[in-house]
Amino acid sequence: MTPPIIRHRSGPPATPPNNDNRNALILAVAVHLLLLVALIFGVNWRTEAPGPVEVQLWADGNSPVAPPPTPQPEQPKPQPKPEPQPEPEKAPEPPPPPPPPPPPKPEPQVQPKTEEVDPEIAIQEAKKKREQEEKARQAAEAKEKARLEEERKQAELKEKKRLEQERQAAEKAAAEKAAEKAAAEKAAADKAAAEKAAEKAAADKAAAEKKAKDDAAKKAAAEKAAADKAAAEKAAAEKAAAEKAAAEKAAAAKKAAADKALKDAFRNDALGAAGIPGGTADRNQAGGGRDNGYAAKVRACILPGVAYQPPPRNGSANPTAQYRVQLGTDGKVNGVNLTESSGNPAFDRAVETGIRRCNPFPKPSTGGYDKFIDVVHKMYD
């Protein structure tokens, strides 16, 4: 509830100048008394700070204005609100009296002064009482606040002590748990170290056994390799000796064949026989342009270069390879073409190799070289 705002004059109320304003003065006093009663009941019955309420007082127009009340401080704890009280009804505004007719001026009479209740004094007393009650209320609030603050401090101290005990208990439990964990880790580490040492010992033993086994295997392999090498060297030596003997035999046979061919050439030259059938020497001899021993010279030049060991002769067959050889003016071989194969590619290649190794060809006794010469070589001649 808002305390009423009272407008009054700063000085004492003036006495109505005439009888016409007496009714207004009595009405103002009655309103002040009602306001005082409302203030007393409002202070005693309500605990919350009242809100502003404006009350208009109809007086002679010169009433002093009361200062606004001091705002009440807020309560530290919410108090239960009392049931709302009905606000005092405002006094009905009296209708303004009709202006009386101007009376005749009477003779001035001395009227006795009547005692009246001073509204200002009543307001000051009510204000003083309200201030005392406010001070008492503030003191009670301060006491209650101090009590609550002490209780809060005690509760805070108790809570702090409880938290400290819990912290110490937690630290102790953590230390015990850490000690147990460290002991368990040490035991596990010792066990792991022992297992690792056992594994290392077993591994070292297995490695030693494997090394001994590997050394024995290497020794046996080395001995076997040495024996195999000796056997291989012996076999290679025997094979080389056999190949050498075969080569020497083949060389001796080839040399004998060459010697025989040379002897035959000389014999044919002496007898005037023809050279290689179909060769240029034969044609030239037939034409009278070459000597009869040129074919034998060509055969004697080619035969040492033919590296071919003929197989044993079977029947009367005698494979023959025929080549046309292109010669330069200096007798060097410029080209070799196979014109008739013997049917044995190895023999054909051997004959071609012998022709190319005969470089340059023997020089004819009659002068320059022919551009082409047909060479016929038989396997068993």
Automatic annotation (TrEMBL):
Report biased composition (Basic and acidic residues) as residue ranges.
125-247
Cited Pfam families: TonB_2 (PF13103)
State where the protein is found.
Membrane
Q: Indicate the segments forming the TonB C-terminal domain, all copies.
A: 293-381
The record's section on PROSITE patterns has: TONB_CTD
Q: Which Gene3D superfamilies match?
A: 3.30.1150.10
Region feature (Disordered): 58-258
Q: How does it sit in the membrane?
A: Single-pass membrane protein
Question: InterPro entries in the record, alphabetically?
Answer: Tol-Pal_TolA, TonB/TolA_C, TonB_C
- Write the protein's name: TonB C-terminal domain-containing protein
Does the keyword section mention Phosphoprotein?
A: no
What's a single GO BP term from this record? bacteriocin transport
Pro residues: compositionally biased ranges: 65-85, 93-109
For this UniProt entry, the molecular function terms from Gene Ontology, in alphabetical order, are: toxin transmembrane transporter activity
A Gene Ontology cellular-component term: membrane
Q: Where are the transmembrane segments?
A: 24-45
Q: Does the keyword Membrane apply?
A: yes
Its keywords, alphabetically, are: Membrane, Transmembrane, Transmembrane helix
